[in-house]
Amino acid sequence: MTPFSLSTDIYYKNRESGPVFDLATTMEKLRVVGYSLEEIMLMVTEHAADNFHLKNKGRLEVGYDADITIFDIVKGTKELVDSNGNKEVTQELIIPTCTIVGGEIYENEPISKI
Questions:
Q1: Cβ contacts of 107 within 8 Å, gap of 6 or more
Q2: What is the span of the domain harbouring residue 26?
Q3: Which residues, including other chains, have CB under 8 Å from residue 110's CB and lie 6 or more apart?
Q4: What is the pTM for the complete model shown?
Q5: CATH number of the domain that 63 lies in?
Q6: Residues 76, 93: Cα–Cα separation, whole Å
Q7: Of 31, 58, 78, 113, which sits most exposed with the smallest number of CB within 10 A?
């Protein structure tokens, strides 16, 4: 079975204690099991917007809202745990650096400050 879209079921307990934490971690979990960055980007943008019938969202095209998150892809290790407690280690980290919404730029806090 191949997922069509990707999101998180994040709430205060699994943001603090895991296993979800944030969307970037969820994206890393798909990378570690073999999905390409291109496949994952479609899952969190176009496909997610299409699932919820969000007009003007999910694509960087003329006429669409240019609300985006910019990520750095860096080498590094991190243990990833799924909801059943299974563990994998990734060698590639997806780090959100800033978000642009409605033309406003929001710098993300460094991970060490969160």
A1: 97, 98
A2: 12-109
A3: none
A4: 0.85
A5: 2.30.40
A6: 6
A7: 113
